[in-house]
Design goal:
This protein has 352 residues and is an alpha/beta fold. The protein is built from 11 helices and 10 strands. It has a 7-stranded mixed beta sheet. The protein has a 3-stranded mixed beta sheet with strand order 1-5-4. The radius of gyration is 20 Å and the shape is globular. GO terms for molecular function: catalytic activity; iron-sulfur cluster binding; metal ion binding.
């Protein structure tokens, strides 16, 4: 296999060193690469944390605290903005990010301790803000499930973002919390094309399976927002209206979108992926991304980084608003309540 060739079942094409590494390595085609590379197995290590709740003050993010049960994500979405975070543990944002994972089994206990802390201020806790809480390893580790159990007992509001149908496993908890205004879910759908999805996000649930999860969540009384995330110029942007239509057909209450973001190493990883899979579209896609970010490949400015700026971004925004109106969807799901919160250890009544 030559350098720059895709690996079956993985998103990134390469495994470039962390930006903090003292040395770098570069693969060179000497004509002796085997046709099939060795299979990259997924490994999971335990990460010990002193705290698990992360807080932010970003004005363009609709939550101020989040929890990530895992570091790294086996879904392998090539566009994932969380990939650069693997560099902080000395690993590559490329293949390492999706094969060398870290689990936080003490997260439920640490969360319970945080909720019981004197002076804790209750506000919705976001799961899936960085990596997917329902990625495949959750089937075995069940950390997300345990976190939800802590939140359920404390009557603490939670919002979840995922690309996985595994969320259906926890419908018993989510439906009960949603009935009290304590839970909503965002299901991310990038494309309806299963062939493209297999290349973009190789180990996430198939698009049709995510839509079924939307319908099953909605049937259980859980408000669902479909996120078209990210919209990729010249590759998936033509699907916007169709995804909004499908969201409405499957009983979502709202929809949103995020324009492709390419911070730090994601820029080179995504460009490499484009060249490997869609070489004839690569230049035009990257040109449009640059056009939508003020002449840069990525504009980190609040209010612009998620939706872009300029004519192309304005056109996307107008198309999206019209699609929402056509299908009677809102941009935001119903708000969550915080006044039912009872800190762990204090006597509380049943939800119903």
């Amino acid at each position: 296999m030559k350098p720059g060739s895709p690996r079956h079942g993985r998103g990134a094409v390469s495994n470039a060193a962390s930006r903090f590494s003292a040395t770098t390595r570069e693969a060179v085609d000497d004509g002796w690469f085997p046709e099939e590379p060795p299979t990259l197995a997924t490994t999971v290590s335990v990460e010990t944390s002193r705290s698990v709740v992360t807080r932010n003050q970003s004005p363009d993010i609709p939550f101020d605290q989040s929890l990530n049960p895992y570091r790294g994500c086996e879904h392998g979405c090539i566009y994932c903005y969380a990939r650069p975070s693997h560099a902080y543990v000395g690993l590559s944002p490329g293949l390492d990010f999706e094969t060398r994972l870290f689990a936080k089994p003490d997260a439920p206990a640490l969360l319970e301790k945080e909720l019981a802390r004197p002076g804790y201020r209750c506000s919705p806790l976001a799961l899936g803000a960085n990596t997917d809480p329902y990625q495949p390893i959750e089937r075995e580790w069940r950390i997300t499930r345990q976190v939800l159990e802590v939140l359920q007992r404390a009557r603490h509001p939670v919002t979840i973002t995922t690309k996985s149908a595994l969320i259906e496993r926890d419908l018993d908890i989510l439906s009960e919390m949603a009935a009290a205004g304590l839970a909503n879910v965002q299901v991310s759908i990038t494309t309806l094309d299963k062939t493209l999805a297999l290349k973009l996000e190789p180990r996430a649930s198939a698009p049709h399976r995510r839509l079924l999860a939307v319908a099953r969540l909605a049937a259980a009384g859980v408000p669902v927002k479909v996120m078209i995330a990210p919209i990729i110029p010249w590759l998936t942007d033509s699907e916007m209206e169709r995804i909004v239509e499908k969201a409405a057909e499957h009983a979502a209450v709202s929809a949103g979108y995020i324009l492709l973001r390419l911070p730090r190493e994601v820029e080179s990883l995504f460009a490499e992926w484009l060249t490997a899979h869609y070489p004839l579209k690569a230049a035009h896609t990257l040109n449009l991304v640059t056009l939508a970010h003020g002449g840069r490949i990525y504009d980190p400015g609040f209010g612009r980084r998620q939706v872009g700026s300029g004519d192309y971004a304005a056109l996307l925004a107008r198309r999206f608003r019209l699609a929402l109106k056509r299908h009677d969807l809102t941009e935001e799901p119903p708000g969550l309540v915080s006044d039912l919160f009872t800190p762990p250890g204090q006597r509380q009544l049943a939800l119903f």
